[in-house]
TrEMBL record:
This is DUF1488 family protein. InterPro entries: DUF1488 (IPR009962), Shew3726-like_sf (IPR036692). It comes from the Bacteria. Residues 87-106 are annotated as: Disordered.
Amino acid sequence: MGNFAKETEAKYQDGAIRFYLGKEGERQEFEISGDALLQAFDARDGTASALLQAFENGREKITAAAIAAAATPSTDGIIELGSGDFDAKNARGGISPGERNGADSA
């Protein structure tokens, strides 16, 4: 696990990465979808290790998107970041990590 993942306590859960940003007492929990990591950060596949590596590589853009999303007045609980929060780098649109195997053979 890289420094960003350690700093944010990033963990793979149900095809996404959950992480925290903020100072002690003011920390906010976020979740970035596997789709976003596949599309915008070129994760090689939907495995935990590949998504965490893409999360690490996308540190600056993920942090900026999380800060912007947290500024929304109506955010309670876990703030979700998805494909729409980032520019897609590839044509993997609409493919979730669980669907990758079947979609690759088509």
